[in-house]
Specification:
mainly beta, about 5% helix, about 50% strand, 3 domains, Immunoglobulin-like, about 260 residues, five-stranded antiparallel beta sheet
């Protein structure tokens, strides 16, 4: 009889533990807003799905025994840009839903205080008012379009952010800028940095197997249908494997065409 009671207790304990097997996690940064959660009934029909909410590993004191509730982040005294991790433990067989997860996603709010290219061909920029870490995408204007030339991880601090990246100016006047894209998918741009290179213009010679430049340069080769077939930064291009036909060649600050026999 004693053995039967022990086995029964172990079985009940297993059921309780298994109901905690599910977790929903959300990571982001504090932006001054609270989260709203939809809390369905448990699959058994008894009680609600969510059993515990933790904010940065601290158990939330919000009232969670309802079909919808608010996770009040203001009570944790976060500063804008502070990291936030939400962990929702819930019963198996049901799934809660965070209604506004974007409110803790980083926003692009940077303000450029300085952006310039030095004689060392390094693009440097300083920012304030960042509210979360987002990548800076570096672009250079060449061949009548903005071309991505690098990426730098943003620090996400409100002040004192300093960044730099080596760039490859073409001959003549150059324009560079940086941009960020947050959860809204809308790019946000800096002002342009102007740099005039005194390097001589690049020219090239072509055989049926190779294009050689007078100095290393960024380049692109497109086929007749506009498909990119070669991209790089070098003083020569192997074109031996290209199919016969007409191609567009972008290099230095020039756009030309050539024929592959």
């Amino acid at each position: 009889m004693v053995v039967k009671r022990i086995l029964t207790s172990l079985f009940v304990g297993f059921i309780v533990l298994s109901s905690w097997a599910q977790e929903l996690k959300l990571n982001g940064v504090y932006q001054g807003d609270n989260l709203y959660v939809m809390n369905p009934f448990a699959s058994t029909g008894v009680g609600f799905c969510i059993q515990e909410v933790r904010v940065n590993n601290k158990v939330s004191t919000d009232e969670i025994a309802s079909s919808a509730f608010e996770i009040d982040l203001s009570q944790y005294h976060f500063k804008v840009g502070d990291p936030v991790e939400i962990t929702i433990k819930h019963k198996s067989g049901c799934k809660p839903k965070i209604l506004n997860p974007n409110v803790i996603q980083p926003k692009s709010t940077f303000v450029i205080s300085r952006i310039e290219v030095g004689r060392d061909k390094i693009l440097r920029w300083s920012t304030t008012d960042e509210s979360g870490s987002l990548d800076y995408i570096i672009e250079q204007y060449r061949w009548n379009k903005w071309v991505k030339v690098g990426t730098v991880k943003g620090d996400g601090n409100k002040s004192g952010n300093q960044y730099s990246i080596k760039v490859s100016p073409h001959s003549g006047q150059n324009k560079f800028r940086v941009k960020q894209i947050d959860y809204s998918k809308k790019p946000r741009y800096s002002q342009e940095a102007i740099f005039r290179s005194m390097a001589p213009a690049v020219s090239y010679k072509k055989t049926n197997n190779e294009i050689s430049f007078t100095q290393a340069t960024l380049y692109e080769i497109y086929d007749y249908y506009g498909n990119v077939v070669k991209v790089g930064d070098s003083d020569k291009i192997d074109i031996s494997q290209l199919k016969s036909g007409d191609y567009f060649l972008n290099y230095d600050n020039k756009m030309e065409t050539f024929k592959k026999k």
